[in-house]
Each structure stands twice: as C-alpha cells, then as structure tokens.
C-alpha cells in the first residue's frame, strides 16, 4: 500500500508550520487536567480509542515515501478529521493531497486521492487478557479525487482494532482487516502489531511490524518506529520512519505530524 507525504528536495512550506507552532504554543499554555489525546498516528496501527463525545480532533501528517526505486511520493499534508458524535462512536473524514514524482524522466503528478468518509465504533472495554476493541471503516469516493488519482472503483477499508494495556507504561495495539485498492475487486488483507511505551510525562515511543497480502500478488511486509511528544493534554507532535521487508513493499519513508483536540 503506497501512501505518502513531504517534499523531497523542496523545503516544507512555511505557511503550514507557522500556524501549527502558534496553535501548539497555545495548547501548552491552556492544557486541562484530563488524559493525553489518543491519535491514530504515527503508526500504521489504529487505536481502539475513540474521541470524546462532541470533541473535534485534527491529525496532520507530512510524509515522504520511496514507493519503489523509480517513484517518490509525498502527502502534504495528509489530514484526518475526527468528531465524537456519541460516547464510543466517532465520524471521520480523510483528505490526502499527493505529489508523485517519477525519477525516470522527472515526470511529476500532483492532485487529490479519493476523499475518505467513515466511522469508528467502540465494541467492548478491555479487562485483563481481554483486549479493548473497536470497529473502524472508511471508504474512498472516486468522485472526490483528482483525475490523475481517480480509481475505477470505490476504496473501502475495514479493520478490527484491538488494544491490550499491559501496565501503566506499556500497551500493545494490533489490527486485522481488509482494504480494496479501487483498481480491482480483490481484497488486500492486512495486519499490524505495535508495542507502545510511555517515557515520562511527555514522551511516547513505538515500534511496529505490519503487512498487506493479496491473492496473486507479492506480500508487502514493513517495519517502522517513532517518537511522540505531548504538548499539554490537547496536542502532540510525532516523528517516525520505516522500511520495507519485502520487494513489493515501499523502500522506506519518513513522516512528521501533529495532532490537536478541540
């Protein structure tokens, strides 16, 4: 699965980061005494947690990915919007601007991948060895995409999100599910496994293995790791990097992001 963001040799645009810096400074000054926000980035694993009722959360990510030796992809930025409609139920929208740069001949395509709409719903709370669970689904709508990145079919995805809290420092996130690329009707099965550790008051780290398997195609297995810094209780910045383990997977990527709860 080739998703991406950032601009190879081009500096990231200041107009994106100036308001981000101002917003995060405000968050640190106005933090409230509740839990740190739960974001669905930077790992491939989606959290089993939903946003609070009537809360609005924005998650932005810039990512540069070497999709294959001849192609570099950028999202600038990938944007996920989450709204807590009910306790344990959130509505979601995802927007993915994409620049695809081909090294052979220097051809570049820029546009918008299908806008995705969906939801996440909590299924049950975890206790002991029983993991907390949620159902996540989104669908990419071809009509809401640039012509260069418009697929033939809709792009649905569905996952069972599972999370075990081992102790106050450690937890384990893992997902299983399926996605469709929009170019055919064959499902692409996926798995993720990501231990996460809290490092003091502000830091969190993760490592992860994940993959995508489709009948008749080579499997895509990858590893990644990253670090997050919490700003107050409502903001988070993250940095992550990863690499492919099989020839069909992306070669490598690096990503920078931030999340804020309003």
Report the mean per-residue pLDDT as an integer.
88
With strands numbered from the N-terminus, the spatial order across the biggest sheet is: 1-2-3-6-7-8-9-10-11-12-13-14
Write the CATH architecture name.
Beta Barrel
How much helicity do the residues have? under 10%
Please report the distance between the alpha carbons of the first and last residues: 31 Å
Give me the number of helical elements. 1
CATH superfamily: monomeric porin ompg
The count of domains is: 1
Strand-pairing-aware structural class: mainly beta
Query: Looking at the structure, what is the overall shape?
Result: globular
Order of helices and strands: HEEEEEEEEEEEEEE
Number-wise, the strands total 14
Strand content: over 45%
What is the CATH class designation? Mainly Beta
Alpha carbon gyration radius: 18 Å
Low-confidence spans: pLDDT under 50, at least 5 residues?
1-34
By CATH, the topology is Porin
Main β sheet profile: 12 strands, antiparallel, barrel
